[in-house]
Write a structure and sequence with these properties.
1 helix, 64 residues
Length: 64
């Protein structure tokens, strides 16, 4: 395979979603994810003086 072919294959198979959630906010991704698609993710929390942060991920049935 040529380098161009590898790059085109990588572009075809990847995508990203970035969003901001305000303090005490929630974000539902149900409408943005298609059926039978495996979703993996990374997250980054900004540091705040004296603030506690937590992340909760669940599916539409409440499974975590």
């Amino acid at each position: 395979l040529s380098l161009l072919g590898v790059i085109l294959m990588a572009l075809e198979c990847t995508s990203a979603l970035r969003f901001y959630v305000p303090s005490n906010g929630k974000k539902c991704l149900k409408e943005e994810i298609h059926k039978n698609v495996v979703v993996t993710g990374e997250y980054e929390l900004s540091e705040g003086n004296g603030y506690t942060s937590s992340v909760h991920v669940s599916d539409t049935r409440g499974h975590t």
